[in-house]
Amino acid sequence: MAKVTIDEKEYETDDLSDEANAQLQSLQFVNAEMQRLQAKAAVMQTASVAYSAALKAELDKGGADTITTGS
Question: Helices (DSSP H) in the chain: which residue ranges?
Fold first, then answer.
């Protein structure tokens, strides 16, 4: 028997209605998906920082022509 705690109250999943179990499964899926997306966002943020650093290093060593315009 699995237990779940909601609003600090413990429930036996076997005692929940079919509808309550369906809602619980949906909630668990959504929470897991949010965690997955947050982890993916963290990876993307890390990659962004690394690419920015690599670009800055390349620009600092003169890897791109600098164009200046007079104002």
Answer: 18-60
